[in-house]
Amino acid sequence: MSQEILLETGTNEFEILEFFISSQMSEDLPIETNLFGINVAKVVEVIESPGLEITYDNVNPCFMGVISLRGSILPILDLSKWLKISRQKSKNEIIIVTEFSKQTAGFLVSGVVEIHRLDWTQVEFPDKLVASNKENCVVGIVQIEQKIIQLLDLEYMISDLTGINIETKPSSFVSENKFRSLIADDSKLIREMLKTSLEEANFEVREFTNGLDCWNFLSQIAADLQDNSDSKYTGYDIIITDIEMPQMDGFTLTKQIKQHAVLKNIPVLLYSSIITEELYHKGQFVGADEQMSKPDLHKVPQVSVKLIEQYRSK
Predict the structure, then answer these.
(1) Homologous superfamily of domain range 179-312
(2) Is 308 strand, coil or helix?
(3) Nearest CA to 305 among 237, 214, 248, 221?
(4) Of 164, 168, 186, 237, which is least packed with CB atoms within 10 Å of its CB?
(5) What is the mean pLDDT of the chain?
């Protein structure tokens, strides 16, 4: 499966791969089908499981071992263990090979269903109970006909299993000038880490959980500025946005900003786990000023200042 999403960039559309994990609590109960989804942009391919079994000496119960895939070593993780689902084993289990945040990993599941083309407005936030459960790592809910599909935060799972924090390097950079930034990201963890990193570098930060809220805020600022011809400064120096977000994605947010007569002069930095060589051109198409792949959090403040200074020197 190619990572190339055959969609026009900036239309707020995306595609998910629907897959399932079969479970059975006891022999006298029916088998249940638990439905999940992952952004197709993170999927490299889908392969048949070679039948790996978890051994007792594994460091983490989710880690099943490694396989060789076209000359590369691919770690395999049992997704059901992380989700605390009693998986019903079958002969034709599937491994979803993914690539994001500069890491490649395979996730064992019971099977895949199909690919769905969706609009980000169809993604609902999980309720507080589900969102607070680390093992579920559910970042969104989608209803397709009679099916409820849970979108998973696999980045968080990888980070937790490997013990590697998203911010792998400390940053000692501090800006000489005080700047103001907007952050749009549906991950509370990423927002907190970005905010901390930026504030330590002499930034003032305002946060949003999705692109739509950020856009509405900016639109109001622009409307106020148009009523006041004496000033065209929006009050914010840079926008740092994720790509995958409910309601409005980062591509669409960036496109609307760059097509706006007033807002187009604010630099936009895309910070996402799905910025790869294959997808980099999508950010360019919508006018992003810079694109950075997680986990390069320590570089964000310095890159932000560079973009701000470039705009001010024009």
Answers:
(1) Response regulator (3.40.50.2300)
(2) helix
(3) 237
(4) 168
(5) 86
